[in-house]
């Protein structure tokens, strides 16, 4: 999800002193059945249309509910606040919302709660990272123009008919549009968000099963169960204390010591021990996450005639199977396409679509790189954020594989950036000196989400600035197709364009993994690899 790469980064802030807030106390200082869970500070304030990374997303998933909700086991989109979403042409939609829903401050959730929130998210003046997700709605070109000043305050494609009904007109057909509406950017917002925005940012008000009681940046956030929550997915615990860690290894140590209830990112170095340490309290389940290496197409050295051969050669120089077996120990699977197996074949996953380009073949790799003019500057610098316990290990392994394949121990080196925030800033400023880590966690379970946000010209998560008119045309055709099977097939044709150009190198599909204490039961990860906090029982 999501405007920018929302891959798991598993660490930010400082390890906290847990004596007062650990699992024994119930967290938050309020007692009761409260669990503690590892976390990292969000990159941005928790505005739904401005949060596009996992740590902030975890909180939004607890304090908001939208028109749709993704089933925590299958990932399928289910009507939630939506009573119905109807269309006759896949362009004009009538949305009816259920009665009885309220925000935690008592305000009713109405059609206006959605329309005002979407207009805010789309506005160029508000500079929201997820603005791109409103790009299908009529009038987006005026509310958020590619250049120049904003020419309209609201999206012309949104109209409130009454308290429980609004209409959406898109600027093109998009048959999958309703299934995107479970993504947090489309959440409703209360009036206080607009009338006292600074106060709302300090203590966000949502309509979900939890409320934020307190937040100390770099330390912890305490979320309390909302007793008057009207939804069917009420919290089965009294609250959650999210504890900030700089290192997933420290979180794991605290879990084993009984100072933490839930660690949802087991560090690579501990994977050989985790089953013995935790037994049945270790979770390892498939998730909609793909790790890739992206390229800086704004650098002519990586975007010239022959470059596709160099990129394909690098892909074939990576021994995915060896790396996933030795480092990740069955928590990763070598990728053979640019989506995820969690989509299923009907949803767009196509094993082997990458073909030989994803097979380890050092002889062919060396040949292709030579035919393509060689590695720019003679050396690949793989950039990554170093503030987690796992990226360095696999980056070094990828470089070793490339170096061995090319017979040159200096052909590839890791290029660490100290923090995730600095790393993202350098990416946003188009300062990558070569290929860079670009994991993707799906926003919603559609093949479109694995392709369009990352590779469509000008898309907000197209960090390498790749552009291909044929790919764009195929995506537009797929979005307009009302038959699901035909839409998926057309998206796969677009994916073949990504393959033929090796727009990004797919590395492996990632499982979600977690460990939990003996105090907890009912612990599970959803297909987005996020704990289903509301279903966890304590004691």
Task: Identify the notable features of this structure and list them briefly.
539 residues, alpha+beta, six-stranded antiparallel sheet, four-stranded mixed sheet, 16 helices, 19% strand
Quick synopsis:
The protein has 539 residues and is an alpha+beta fold.
What does this structure look like?
By secondary structure, the protein is an alpha+beta fold. The chain contains 16 helices and 20 strands. The chain has helices at residues 54-63, 111-122, 140-143, 192-195, 197-202, 248-257, 274-278, 307-316, 320-328, 344-347, 362-371, 391-406, 420-428, 447-455, 469-480, 484-501, and strands at residues 34-39, 68-70, 77-79, 82-87, 92-97, 158-162, 165-169, 210-216, 220-225, 239-244, 262-263, 282-294, 332-334, 380-385, 412-417, 436-437, 440-441, 505-516, 520-521, 537-538. Strands 11, 12, 13, 16, 17 and 18 form a 6-stranded antiparallel beta sheet that branches. It has a 4-stranded mixed beta sheet with strand order 1-10-9-8, covered by helices on one side. A 4-stranded antiparallel beta sheet has the order 4-5-7-6, covered by helices on one side. The chain is globular and about 65 Å long.
């Amino acid at each position: 999800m999501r405007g920018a790469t929302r891959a798991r980064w598993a660490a930010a802030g400082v390890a906290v002193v847990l004596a007062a807030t650990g699992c024994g106390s119930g967290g938050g200082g309020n007692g009761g059945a409260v669990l503690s869970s590892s976390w990292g500070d969000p990159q941005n304030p928790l505005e739904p249309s401005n949060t596009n990374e996992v740590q902030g997303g975890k909180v939004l998933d607890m304090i908001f509910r939208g028109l749709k909700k993704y089933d925590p086991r299958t990932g399928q989109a289910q009507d939630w606040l939506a009573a119905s979403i109807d269309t006759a042409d896949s362009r004009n939609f009538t949305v009816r919302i259920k009665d009885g829903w309220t925000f935690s401050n008592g305000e009713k959730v109405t059609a206006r709660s959605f329309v005002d929130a979407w207009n805010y998210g789309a506005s160029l003046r508000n500079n929201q990272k997820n603005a791109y997700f409103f790009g299908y709605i009529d009038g987006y070109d005026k509310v958020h123009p590619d250049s120049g000043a904003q020419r309209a305050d609201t999206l012309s494609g949104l109209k409130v008919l009454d308290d429980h009904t609004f209409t959406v007109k898109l600027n093109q057909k998009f048959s999958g549009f309703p299934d995107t509406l479970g993504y947090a950017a489309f959440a409703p917002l209360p009036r206080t968000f607009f009338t006292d925005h600074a106060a709302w940012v300090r203590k966000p008000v949502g309509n979900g099963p939890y409320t934020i009681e307190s937040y100390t940046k770099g330390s912890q956030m305490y979320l309390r169960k909302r007793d008057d929550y009207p939804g069917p997915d009420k919290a089965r615990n009294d609250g959650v204390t999210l504890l900030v860690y700089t290192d997933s290894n420290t979180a794991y140590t605290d879990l084993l010591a009984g100072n933490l209830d839930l660690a949802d990112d087991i560090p690579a170095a501990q994977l050989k021990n985790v089953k013995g340490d935790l037994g049945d309290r270790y979770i390892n389940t498939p998730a909609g996450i793909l790790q890739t290496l992206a390229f800086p197409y704004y650098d002519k050295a990586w975007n010239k005639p022959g470059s596709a051969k160099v990129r394909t050669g690098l892909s074939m120089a990576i021994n995915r199977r060896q790396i996933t077996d030795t480092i990740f120990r069955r928590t990763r699977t070598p990728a053979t396409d640019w989506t995820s197996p969690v989509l299923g074949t009907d949803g767009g996953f196509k094993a082997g679509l990458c073909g030989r380009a994803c097979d380890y073949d050092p002889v062919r790799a060396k040949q292709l790189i030579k035919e393509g003019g060689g590695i720019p500057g003679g050396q690949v610098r793989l950039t990554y954020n170093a503030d987690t316990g796992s990226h360095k290990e696999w980056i070094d392994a990828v470089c070793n594989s490339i170096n061995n394949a090319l017979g040159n121990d200096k052909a590839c080196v890791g290029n660490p950036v100290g923090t995730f925030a600095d790393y993202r800033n350098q990416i946003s400023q188009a300062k990558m000196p070569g290929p860079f880590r670009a994991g993707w966690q799906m926003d919603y379970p559609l093949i479109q989400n694995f392709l369009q946000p990352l590779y469509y010209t000008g898309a907000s998560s197209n960090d390498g600035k790749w552009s291909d008119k044929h790919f764009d045309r195929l995506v537009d055709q797929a979005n307009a197709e009302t038959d699901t099977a035909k839409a998926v097939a057309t998206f796969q044709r677009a994916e073949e364009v990504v393959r033929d150009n090796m727009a990004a190198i797919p590395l492996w599909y990632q499982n979600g993994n977690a460990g939990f204490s003996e105090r907890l039961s009912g612990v599970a990860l959803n297909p987005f690899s996020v704990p289903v906090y509301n279903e966890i029982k304590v004691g």
